[in-house]
Amino acid sequence: MINFNKKKNTGFTLVETLVALFVFSVTVLAVMMALTRGISSTIYAKDKVVAEYLSQEGIEYFRNMRDTFQLFADDKNDGWSKFIEKLKTNGCEENGCYFDNNEDNFFGQLTTDIKILPCDKNCPNFLYDAQLGKYNYNKGSESTFSRRMLLTVIDDNNVKITSETTYRSGSNTNTVSLSENLSNWIE
């Protein structure tokens, strides 16, 4: 005899389906939030590394400029004073300065000939040339990075060079500041 009153419990009820969808949605949202935080952290780290390299580059150019002034000076004591004078007359002591690393006039010349310009209130942002992978002031798309070089005279034979690179990362403005003391090494 066949019993027609017996129900089979196969399939999901509406409540079970809604609970399963809720658990799945929460899991997907958690994964998406973790991915978003990871991407933000990666972008922040990349920007900080670029800012550190730009700051270090500024110090290296000024060190190279000091050395070039001293090596190519007619009088061995004249190079240091010409180096300091160039930085002072271009505003590096007051509001800071920047050097124009225009690719057309920058490479193949002595660093004593590099144009140094004063920063009024802020130094201009770098442009990024994606084709060359370089930051400059004359070619490319505007970046969020700007660099300001500062000169602090310690005494007649020593100065402190500070290179500050400021950049925006998300809604925050960050600054990487590196400094080095340069000395008159000609005796």
Tally of contiguous helical segments? 3
Please state the average pLDDT score: 86
Overall tally of structural domains:
1
Biggest sheet statistics: 5 strands, antiparallel
The order of strands across the largest sheet is 4-3-5-6-7
Order of helices and strands: HHEHEEEEEE
Structural class: alpha+beta
Shape: rod-shaped
Uncertain segments are none
How far apart, in Å, are the first and last alpha carbons? 117 Å
Helix content: 40-55%
Count of extended strands: 7
- Strand fraction band? 25-35%
Spatial extent as radius of gyration:
29 Å
Question: How does this structure look, described?
Answer:
With 187 residues, this protein is of the alpha+beta class. It has one domain. It is built from three helices and seven strands, in the order H-H-E-H-E-E-E-E-E-E. The chain has a five-stranded antiparallel β-sheet, with helices on one face. A two-stranded antiparallel sheet has the order 1-2. The relative contact order is 0.15. The mean pLDDT is 86.
